Predict the 3D structure of the following.
Amino acid sequence: TLALRHFLFVRRNRGARILLAEDEAITQEISRELLAHCGLTVDLAVDGSVAVAMARNHRYDLILMDMEMPILDGLAATRAIRALPGYGTVPILALTANAFAEDRQRCIAAGMNDHVVKPVDPERLFAALVHWLEQGRPHHDPLIESIDLRYCERIGPEWTAAPVNVLRNPAFLR
């Protein structure tokens, strides 16, 4: 179920550091809330030049980059970040209202890995996060592997179903 996928994602990726490069206040707020709900640590850059400076000074696991920002746009910022040591393979995802195929191609040509269209669809964003953050990571987790999926129950509006033995055991939530 989606709830179990969310739980497993949070378990494996809690604390992953995300750089959100976005100049629109509403999108900042919505994106930060969605990312925090996934257990991710979010730093905000209000334009492309700030994003490059932050990437130069910190290590990020994934970058969400708006295409159109003041001072330095997302395409130029992506090129500059790709040139920084250690950022050749860090996933950079466009987070943009530019939804046409040619916009996606411009993002890919600039060095971005994927393209998430605004307004942000939580399921689409989550799918992109799962794909790009978990790529190449080992998935062996003895606690997760011990879950007996037969013991699932409905527990609330944010989770459609969750393993009871997991939610009642604090060791699983660490």
In short: Residues 148-174 have pLDDT under 50 and may be disordered. The radius of gyration is 17 Å.
